[in-house]
Amino acid sequence: MLLNKMTDEQSNDFYTQFLNEHSFAEILKIEEQSPTKKDCLHRQTKLCKDCTRDYDPEHYPNNYNCPSYHEIKIGLVEKDADGKPIIQLTPLEETAVNTSTQEDYDTLMRVYECGGWKWGNGSKPTMGNNWNSYKANYCIDLGIHYRTKAKGEFCGGSMEWNSSNNWTIISPKDFYQIQKITPEMLNEISKFFEKK
């Protein structure tokens, strides 16, 4: 069956079946084995509804611009047995995220929890609410505890403390870009925590 002739319902069924039959690792391997970086992953896996021809810069210059790529990638976020997304985070030394709003704080704590990071006292990031300590001036270190230097642990403090100690202060948006966390991934993470 040609994908470009499928109905939306048939196409969604096809995508779901493909994702259920192939592991995250298998799909990434397909992507890595792409003969050239100019090949569309979805044409190669026969998933793309839009790519009906060989690579053409006028079509989608790379996979990331392809709407079907994003559609597939959303389903590729690994999940644990409870359905919680699993993401890999890279700790950054002497760097903190300024969570200027409660929403920024809540989202970051969810991301940290999906990344397996914990507060310095060992509790899960989403346990409790520390944002009220400094509100818009609240900063959270990036997976390297400032005192113990333990990776995967963090604590929070004031923007003033971070500035006076010459730490780099970044926004949540910058942190997500550095960590390659897309808006689609943030949406998947939010959906999981909203169900809890």
Structure notes:
The chain has 196 residues and is of the alpha/beta class. The chain has two domains: 3-74, no CATH class; 92-195, no CATH class. It is 38% helix and 11% strand. It contains eight helices and six strands. The protein has helices spanning 8-21, 24-32, 41-44, 67-74, 102-114, 159-164, 172-178, 183-195; strands at 92-98, 118-119, 138-142, 153-154, 156-158, 168-170. A four-stranded mixed β-sheet has the order 5-3-1-6. The longest helix is centred in the N-terminal third of the chain and has 14 residues, at 8-21. The radius of gyration is 20 Å and the shape is globular.
Secondary structure blueprint with pairings:
Layout: H1 8-21, H2 24-32, H3 41-44, H4 67-74, E1 92-98, H5 102-114, E2 118-119, E3 138-142, E4 153-154, E5 156-158, H6 159-164, E6 168-170, H7 172-178, H8 183-195
Parallel strand pairs: 1-6, 2-4
Antiparallel strand pairs: 1-3, 3-5
Helix pairs in contact: 5-8
